[in-house]
Every structure is written in structure tokens, then in C-alpha cells.
Write a structure and sequence with these properties.
Elements: H1 4-9, E1 17-20, E2 24-28, E3 38-42, H2 54-74, E4 79-83, E5 94-99, H3 116-127
Antiparallel strand pairs: 1-2, 2-3, 3-5, 4-5
Length: 132
């Protein structure tokens, strides 16, 4: 059965898309830790990030770097934090989280509740900064 992320890639479930290439997709987390919290995934469904073949893994990190640069330009923050947890969805993904404080990357914190309009406006700001 396809993961929720594979269903997003297939267009069955909508997302707030940031950027896309032939192999990768970046979109906003709908339950973010911070405004601009973005997920970057390989389109190929692989459960565990360290099971990804080397070339695809390197590509995922390089694509994540480009997305992080766009997030940092669009969202006021000190840095972009990076996390790979891999327990919630069995599809490898990288979290890019705008940070102002170390506690901003604490996944046990309550998630933000943003409206569809707020998410779309945030996605638009980041998309406008993305350079392929």
C-alpha cells in the first residue's frame, strides 16, 4: 500500500508544494513546528533513509540544500535545522525547520495550527526564493 507521501507524489493528495524535480519533491508540513517547516522526499518510496542508494541519497541532500536556501531567504530565522526521524511515515524524508531557538526543533512540542491560506502564502514566499 502506498504511503501518504507516495500518494502526494501521485497527485492523489494535495500538498503545499515548494519545489519539484524528476526525483524529489518538497512541500510544507501541514503540522509544522515552525512557519516554513518543509519536508523533502525522494519520489521513489524507500522506508529508511539509509536504505536509499548512494546516488539518490546524495541527490536528496543536494535538493534539500537548495530548498533550505529558499526557506531561509523567505522565513525570518537564524538557521534552517535539519532532522531525519523516519518513524511517523514509512517513506524517507528530511525535515527543514526554520530556527530561532534550539527548542524550535523539539518534535515533542505542540505543532502549529495554520490555516490553508497561511500555508499557501508561506509556500508562495518560499517558492519565489527557490532556484533550481
Amino acid at each position: 500500500m502506498p504511503t501518504i507521501f507516495s500518494r502526494i507524489v501521485a497527485g492523489e493528495i494535495p500538498c503545499y508544494k515548494i519545489a519539484e524535480s524528476a526525483d524529489f519533491l518538497a512541500f510544507l508540513d501541514i503540522s509544522p513546528l515552525a512557519v516554513g517547516h518543509t519536508l523533502v522526499i525522494p519520489k521513489k518510496e524507500v522506508d529508511y533513509i539509509f536504505d536509499i542508494e548512494d546516488e539518490l541519497f546524495a541527490g536528496l541532500m543536494l535538493f534539500s540544500k537548495k530548498v533550505a536556501t529558499a526557506v531561509e531567504k523567505a522565513i525570518p530565522c537564524q538557521r534552517i535545522g535539519v532532522a531525519v526521524i523516519g518513524l511517523e511515515v514509512p517513506h524517507a524524508h528530511v525535515h527543514l525547520i526554520p530556527l530561532r531557538h534550539v527548542s524550535d526543533i523539539n518534535f515533542s512540542r505542540p505543532k502549529l495550527q495554520l490555516s490553508a491560506d497561511e500555508l499557501e502564502e508561506t509556500a508562495k514566499k518560499i517558492r519565489n526564493q527557490f532556484v533550481a
